TrEMBL record:
It comes from the Bacteria. It is an enzyme of class 3 (hydrolase). It comes from Sinomonas terricola. This is Cyclase family protein. One of its GO terms (molecular function) is hydrolase activity.
Amino acid sequence: MASIQEMAARCCNWGRWGENDVLGTLNFIDEAKRVDAAALVRTGEVFSLAQAFDSEGPQNGWRRRTNPVHTMTDTGTDAEYGSQGFPHGFGGADDVISMPLQCSTQWDGLGHIFDRGRAWNGRRAGEVVTSAGDSVTGIETAASRIVGRGVLLDLGRALADGLGLERAELPDGFAITPENLEAAIERQGASAEVGRGDILVVRTGQYTRARREGWGHYAGGPAPGLSFACAPWLHEREVAAVATDTWGFEVRPNEFNGAFQPLHQVAIPNMGLFVGEMWNPDSWAEHSADDGRWDAMLCAQPLPITGAVGSPLNPLAIK
């Protein structure tokens, strides 16, 4: 569709950091940015931004994504009965987990989405990701990179009064515009300013609603999220990464017919933007609403899974 191609051209970062770049917008987070982020730590309070990884998670099988299957291979019962084969009464427990890498709180890597057969930095998609995995921009390339200033924009709270909402939760299908983002920044104050190298976390309130009312169609169904029109806003502010509390980051249903996740199609392969989904910013949001500080040091490292196009994680906001 022409509008996607035009937006991709407008926001394209191909070649910006050289033809061999594998980090995209994570290049905006340099050592100085991390030093500045560390200075935000004042009380030492830590907020986990992860949803649970268990069989009660949000996945419903769509796109072959399932919830984690956790299995014990050694248990306390085995130890009691002495069936583990260890000497002198030694016993232990072991377990394994089987799950899609994007079944709960996760990053989309740069090899996750393609645009007209092209991956990040203009590479041919088939040369980047094969049956052996992503040999160029595998998620392991970001394993030590995503530490910096995190900024939480609580759109649920910021827009609730103006929209006449009973709760600080945007309705499904609500498209968050650049004007909405600016309104949230103005309402939250100076600590919510978003700029170069920041990791933006957007709370819509959908996760809050899903935990209260049940998952329903949380995975893949209608959702509040960023509008397609936000691409230039993210590009011009040089945001390093963006994450939301929804399954798909952008508004669903998508804003125009004949497209599937068009903001993904622009943001990941063309901008080189790291996208996080299914985060849980609620405890951070509640604390920030009380103390008025909406930024924090954010540590959000993916697991160094060689060749993976996404990764689970436990993001930590440290205030």
